[in-house]
Amino acid sequence: MTHILGIDPGSRVTGFGIIRQEGQQLYYVNSGCIRTQNDNFIARLGEIYEGVQHIVKTYKPQTVAIEKVFVKKNVESALKLGQARGAALCPCVLEGLEVSEYSPTQIKRTVVGVGRASKEQVQHMVMRLLRLSETPPSDAADALAIALCHVQQMSIRRLGLSA
User: Fold this and answer.
1) Inter-CA distances, 152 with 26, 51, 68, 76, 111, Å
2) What are 35's strand-pairing partners?
3) Catalytic site residue 139?
4) Does domain 2-158 have CATH number 3.30.420.10?
5) Catalytic member of 39, 134, 139, 142
6) Average pLDDT of 13-31?
7) HSE (CB half, 13 Å, CA atoms) of 42?
8) Confidence of residue 47 (pLDDT cuts 50, 70, 90)
9) Domain-by-domain residue ranges, the chain?
10) pTM more than 0.70
């Protein structure tokens, strides 16, 4: 039995999703969002760190999957995202957890089958794959998709196939 923590980093909202893998079966454990309250950016990084630290200590995942930073147009936004990502990674690294990184396109392609899938398509597939009765919030669904992507990518690596 393995618990996988997926993290969708953000400086205002960081999504998290925990799934359990038992053999070939996947089970939903929990998901949600760390919503920072402070206007001070540095203080928000502390809130992200503490939120992820609490999740790691509560659910004791064996591995963590996180979305890679990508730059569209706004470099400043990408830098803030990178810092939020670092704040989310620190408690995981300090606990000695294995961390894997996936691009947004790779996550969507793995979970939905299309690298440019919409948020709604990701939410729908997460609901179906994890047999959820309700649609999770977008950031939580993205985090669950990251965890699902990790499980699939690990299966591909074990089979010796390239992703």
Assistant:
1) 11, 26, 17, 32, 9
2) 13
3) yes
4) yes
5) 139
6) 96
7) 0
8) very high
9) 2-158
10) yes
Tokens representing 132 are: 């959820």
Q: What is the pLDDT of residue 40?
A: 97
- Our answer to whether residue 39 is catalytic in this structure is no
Beta bridge mates, 22 = 25
Residue 131 — left, alpha, or beta (φ > 0 → left; ψ -120 to 50 → alpha)? left
Residue 142 falls in the annotated catalytic set: no
Q: Which two tokens stand for residue 139?
A: 């950031």
Residue type, 65: A
Give residues with Cβ within 8 angstroms of 41, minimum separation 6: 11, 80, 83
pLDDT digits (tens, 9 = 90+) for 52-87: 999 999 999 999 999 998 766 788 888 999 999 999
Q: What is the DSSP string of 99-162?
A: EEEE-HHHHHHHHTS-TT--HHHHHHHHHHHTT-SSPPPHHHHHHHHHHHHHHHHHHHHHTT--
Which residue type, as a one-letter code, is found at position 109?
Answer: R
Q: How far apart are CA 62 and CA 4, in angstroms?
A: 6
User: What pLDDT, on a 0 to 100 scale, did the predictor assign at position 161?
Assistant: 59
Helix and strand numbers (H, E) in the chain are 5, 5
- Dig out the tokens for 65 from the structure: 């999957």
Question: Cβ(102)–Cβ(146) under 8 Å?
Answer: yes
